[in-house]
Amino acid sequence: MTADRDNAGREETSRPVLSVQGLTIQVATPEGPKPVVQDLSFDLRRGETLCLAGESGSGKSMTALAIMGLLPQPMARIASGSIRLADGSELAGRGERDFRDIRANRISMIFQEPMTSLNPVMTIGRQLTEVLLEHRACTPAEAPSRALDLLRDVRITDAETRLKQYPHELSGGMRQRVMIAIALACNPEILIADEPTTALDVTVQAEVLELIRVLQREHGTTVLMITHDMGVVAEMADRVIVLRHGRQEETAPVRNLFAAPQTEYSQELLDAVPRLGQAPARPAPERSRDVVDVAELCVRFPMRGGLLNRVTAQVHAVEGVSFRISPGETLALVGESGCGKSTIGRALLGLVPWQGSIRIDGQQTAGLSPKGLKPIRRDIQMVFQDPGASLDARMTVGHQVAEPLVIHGLASGSELWDRVEMLFRRVGLTPDQMDRYPHEFSGGQRQRICIARALALGPKVIVADESVSALDVSVQAQVLDLLRELQEEEGLAYLFISHDMAVIDQVADRVAVMNLGQIVETGSRDQVLRDPAHGYTRRLLSAVPIPDPEHTRPPVLPREGEVGSPVWPLGQGPARLPMAEIAPGHWVAQGAPLKVA
Question: Are 456 and 401 in contact (CB under 8 A)?
């Protein structure tokens, strides 16, 4: 009897909690059904983390949606194959009513963008209790205390207050923690995490990944991780399946994949990963007249409240920032979300109200009307994070690249289209693509179109605001190569805004690190990234994932002092941090961290 029980126990442990066999998913197109996942098979073992890795369009997320019964029907459907749970339950072909019992109780999912997953008009507490009650995880009387326990489990600060808040009142990292709490509310056997950290800062990413590991250990949860970030794969995975165009390219234990990839595509993916500290030396650009000169820049947004809706406080988004950029030079602005990076970029283009001094190619922009700013805007252009949102879905991409030339009266007729054709060729696209619409292009191609549009007016400065953070690693490398090539040939100055320290290492000549609207450290790339002097910079660098499973990243350094807040009552504001030069060109903020008033 004892032997029988031992054998049964071993069988239970070795039996996969999820088995996918021969899965083929089709989507409807005008030309007929098209397979987006083809003959995919894998087993998910109890307690392990299996990563589905690959570029956009490889079928990773469609596989997850099929497992969860969330394929957008009738546009997408499972054409063939089997998806079975440990007890033999078949999921393929089940209806919505059956899946309501399986979701949350057996399988839960964390989606990429928590803001689109959470209900904006419901408090966090109500959304948690709704899940608990819908799946009969507790009684209505127990639900509030259980919701509070869930928030504490995911290490949210001041959990009691968070229950009463709405999603927009939380940071990105907090919203993702709420999504994890909701996913784990019913203690599922399997947790599917679909790009759970792509949109997060490097420090928040490290915290969320560590949280998933801790919860996995405590609850014995099996994790199916979907990502295109090979640093996350190295840090989280036990096994990896590399997908390409819906097909299984390679399957291997994570150490084997990184040590000796068996396919050319896997090798290309690993080669494209930016690695902190391995970027080649960049020759220092010739210092000449600065094309960007910013002095004592301040950006403050009013906050209204009370019965009369008066301004009661201000968000000090940027507070006393100064910097310069020369032609052919890249200054990288780095820091966590909310530190003021993107606000500076928008201020340079006159898209937000500001105080201080901004000179573009020697021309002062303070106090100019929109009409007065128009000729200056020819010299400074912006490339935004999301190329899909930057392009008009109703216009051909050729017309969108031509539009700046028409608005500024620089070309018309055949000359206009000759210049547009030249711009398309310049960014690696072909003239026959000019008549297509944005949805007909991949993410990398759309970003190339945005770069072509930014180059149309022959600018001297380009503000690149998280311009590669949404791209796959191989496409990201191609776009970064294009930006470098353009800079060398055109002498462009870049203000490169990013939270990805490894990408910053690839592109920057100088780096400025921001926290709560102020620069806390600035210097050459090697000074800031190789020899950081400020505690905040060291903390950012300690959180960078290392794309090597043989190397265990040490814990993220603790934050020095209080978190602080950019919101101050009207008439008050943060103390300016004095800067000291600790080496030629290497400046570091002195004094205590910012305190909350």
Answer: yes
Give the relative orientation of helices 143-153 and 124-134 as an angle to the nearest 10 degrees: 110
Place of tokens 């989507």: 27
Q: Is 84 within the bounds of a domain?
A: yes
What angle do the packed helices 473-490 and 264-271 form, to 10 degrees? 50
The counts of H helices and E strands in the chain are 22, 22
Contact assessment for residue 51 and residue 60, using Cβ atoms and an 8 Å cutoff: no
Exposure letters 73-101 (e unless 16+ CB within 10 A, then b): eeebbbeebebbbbeeeebbeeeeeeeee
HSE-CB at 141 with a 13 A cutoff on CA atoms is 0
Can you give the CATH number for the domain in which 344 is found?
A: 3.40.50.300
Nearest to 221 by CA among 69, 17, 9, 67: 17
Strands 32-44, 586-589: pairing is unpaired
- The 10s digit of each residue's pLDDT in 525-546 is 999 999 999 999 999 999 888 8
- Encode pLDDT of 397-451 as tens digits: 999 999 999 999 988 899 999 999 999 998 888 999 999 998 888 777 888 899 9
Cα separations (Å) of 364 from 356, 357, 381, 469?
10, 7, 17, 32
Q: Does some domain include residue 195?
A: yes
Distance, CA of 343 to CA of 466 (rounded, Å): 12
pTM, full prediction: 0.81
Residue 162, SS3 per DSSP: helix
Radius of gyration of the chain (CA): 26
Q: What is the DSSP letter of 378?
A: T
